[in-house]
Amino acid sequence: MPVTVLLVDDEPLVRAGLRAVLEAQPDIEVAGEAADGAAVIPLVRKLRPDVVAMDVRMPLLDGIEATRALLRTVPDPPKILVVTTFENDEYVYEALRAGADGFLLKRARPAEIVHAVRLIAEGESLLFPASVRQLAAEYGEGGGNRAARAELERARLTEREGEVLRLMARGLSNAEIAARLVVGTETVKSHVSAVLAKLGARDRTQAVITAYESGFVAPG
Known about the structure:
- The chain is α/β, with parallel strands linked by helices.
- It has 11 helices and 5 strands.
- Strands 2-1-3-4-5 form a 5-stranded parallel beta sheet, sandwiched between helices.
- Helix 4 (90-98) links the parallel strand 4 (79-84) and strand 5.
- Helix 3 (63-73) runs parallel beside helix 4, helix 8 packs across helix 10 (185-199) and helix 10 (185-199) crosses helix 11 (204-214).
């Protein structure tokens, strides 16, 4: 089955460009388009896309609030890929904190766009880990977020789960973590699932942000 994508951007040219790039791939299908975040929830309910590629800045409802609303109201929500003009942007970090799974620059090359959609859909690796680390270093309160610290303390991660979380923060995939720890991939998947469950995290991105904001992992 192809990965289905909903495009959400107030610029028609951006949507047209993304559609052209994605639909050139045999394993990706554009399910629909919207010009504002306010249209996301009804379209997601109707189309059930795997991924929503969403502009972070839109006139009526921006990508941050649209992400929060989507995750709050839609059961089994799709993955959310924030599409932005600027990489080092506090809006991008806020979107990730709100629950977005990763972000993509509008000037990205076609191959990068396709890779981002596939990686987000698979959910087994962190998209652009160095950029997430840079954003966390600038906007993540330097490890002094009390809520994140309390959340990590409540999680009571085992030593091995802590190792896995640190490797997740470096952007390693399940297979790469398995090779690093000399264990099976299924074992790593179990550890990742345990980390996410204990942290109450929707995905790897949210777990890694908690790790940075709590000071468990240094973003520098």
